[in-house]
Amino acid sequence: MSHKGLLRRSRLFVGLSCTLGLLSGTAMAAAAGGFTVGSTNVAVADPSVPRPSGKPCVVELFNDVTFTDFNSRPYAYAPPGGCQGQWAKVVLEADFSVTAGRQFDRTATLWLGGVNVYFGTTQEPSSAVAPSWHVERDLTDYGSLLRSAQNGQAIIGNVVDGTYTGVIHGSARLLFYPGRSPVKAPDAIYPLGADPVGNTAVLNGPADKLAKTLTLPRNIERAYLDVFAQSQGGDEFWYTCVPDAYAKATQECGGGNFRETEVSIDGQPAGVAPVYPWIYTGGIDPYLWRPTPGVQTLNFTPYRVDLTPFAGQLSDGAPQEVAVSVAGAHGYFSTTATLLVYRDARAKQVSGQVTNNTLAGQQPEPTIASTLVTGSNGDVNGDITTGLKRQFVIEGYADTSHGRVRTKVAQTVGFADTQSFTVHGAGYRQVSDQLTSVDSVSQSRIGPFVTNEHREKFSYPLHVDYNQVAATDGSNSSTTTVHQGYEKHDAYRLFGIDVYAAKVSDSIDTADTLNFNASGALTSHDGQHSAQSFAFNDSLGSCYRADLTTLSGALATYSEGQGCPGKSNRVFWFSRPDASPASGNPWSTW
After folding, report:
1. How far apart are CA 46 and CA 30, in angstroms?
2. Buried b vs exposed e over 237-262: b needs ≥16 C-beta within 10 Å?
3. What residue ranges in 185-317 does DSSP mark as E strands?
4. Among residues 129, 166, 254, 578, which one has the fewest Cβ atoms lying within 10 Å of its Cβ?
């Protein structure tokens, strides 16, 4: 290594040591808290976003707005006058409620300057319960967007009439914590889509795409894309669907059950984002999700795609189309994406190109097999399996003020699904077992030295067991059991030295039985119970754990800190226990 390289490396580690020394004594428990055993209101084990010490500046976006139709609710944003310097952290907080009565779950989105700042769904009420809930999102990476005044809007399409009576209320605000963040935020934020205020795009089929042609700065050195792809309409229960050839025999939705988000730049494959099987609070059996909804149901987490191998291409000054589509989409996905870029402050022009892309030419086409057997009396037994595993490498270089930086993104993405059917005259049972996985490594190299390395592993397990049994009098019961999980592992290395690692685990197990009379009317439900566990820990000593159980629609138990040192949650304020994505190595200085 040259003397210049040695000096730079020394400065990096001095900066790292100073940062760790500054932060090591500062921690804040990320407690979900505030739940009462016996309550029928919403209860979750999810952590809040941890904060640094000090008083934040608060900017209100809207307060106690009602949502009774499909019109958007506009608002204006201006940066906080009292916090005009650096921000250690920026947090969105929102509170929602819905009045008791009949109402569907609804999709909720918040926007600023065309950029999505929150995406989730609402909790369904009951005739006696008016649920309320609180959500948070770490927006520190979106700080450059928040430096200027923006128009925004809240969108929660809702119907209130003589049948659907639940009125949704909402309030939202941004909290700005002054100080220095150990993580360098992106220098610029670009929304995909044509709406300057913000909205999602509807992708009905795999050929549809959300696309934006952008002319970007000429000194980009890193780039990432935050992606949301939410299933709606005919795709709401995509994880239970089967190929069209088997739909009639199994009495299921067609179109198959493989879904994956595809990212492209100027038509060239640039990355993939797995689709999480979110289940909304009206999904399958609404009692499954009272009072605890499914994983991320009220507050989705975006998937961040590393586009850094394309940094040189994105900097060439020519218009670039960045696009998102959903492989397997079958009517439909509600989609949005946000491009985050880092600029080389010491260079007016960055040049480079993609040198290797093995994702190009690999079609997202799963292998499907079946052991289904249909008897002469119409009985159906057997399995349908769907699987796809792809390995790809995308490499590129960018000539920057640091020298030529070569970036390599290597991923293995997997999808495995088995649908098991037992269908006969007195019963119908479908068991869905699905696992989506991603194993990713992003490396940056200057000369022979790997300067930065980020490893990520994702796992999305889903098990749904639906069992309907008919009685001789024509009545029937439907028992549903669901296991849903979200696992994420992050590990960062700087010049070959491990500097940080973190693990997030969120899971829920829930069950309920619906009882119907011979006319098909719901008469009762019984056996409702669920358990959610959320755990986070990192290599710096952060630890968060919360566990809860529910019984018959009420919170039965709630505990925090079990399994953490001293049985107490302790999370450093710069950690991300909510599984929100980070841009590459958090300790990198460029």
Report:
1. 9
2. bbbbbbbeebeebbebbebbbbbbbb
3. 188-191, 201-203, 210-214, 220-231, 260-265, 268-274, 303-306
4. 254
3-state secondary structure of 240: helix
Pick the closest to residue 486 from 508, 506, 510 (CA basis).
506
Residue among 458, 459, 484, 477 nearest 239 (CA): 484
Q: Which residues contact 434 (CB under 8 A, 6 or more apart)?
A: 239, 257, 277, 415, 416, 417, 418, 460, 461, 462, 463
Q: What pLDDT does 32 receive?
A: 52
Q: What type of residue is 177?
A: Y
| Residue 162 buriedness (CB in 10 A; 0-12 / 13-18 / 19+) | exposed
- Tell me the average confidence (pLDDT) per consecutive run of 10 residues in the chain, 590 residues long: 34 40 45 81 98 96 98 98 94 98 98 98 97 98 97 98 97 97 92 90 97 97 98 97 96 96 98 98 97 98 98 97 98 97 96 98 96 92 98 98 97 98 95 98 95 97 98 96 98 94 98 97 97 98 98 98 96 94 60
Look-up: residue for tokens 């099987």?
Answer: 277
Close Cβ partners of 472 (under 8 Å, ≥ 6 residues apart): none
Strand partners, 419: 384, 432
Count CB neighbours of 579 within 10 A. Answer: 23
Structure tokens at 476: 């029937």
51-90 burial, b at 16+ Cβ within 10 Å, e below that, comes to: bbeeebbebebbeeeebeeeebbebebebbeebeeebbbb
Peptide bond into 291 cis (omega under 30): yes
Q: What tokens appear for 540 in the block?
A: 């710096």
Please give the structure tokens belonging to residue 379. 């009985």
Q: Rounded to two decimals, what is the model's pTM? A: 0.94
By CB atoms closer than 10 A (0-12, 13-18, 19+), residue 340 is buried
The predicted structure's pLDDT at residue 582: 81
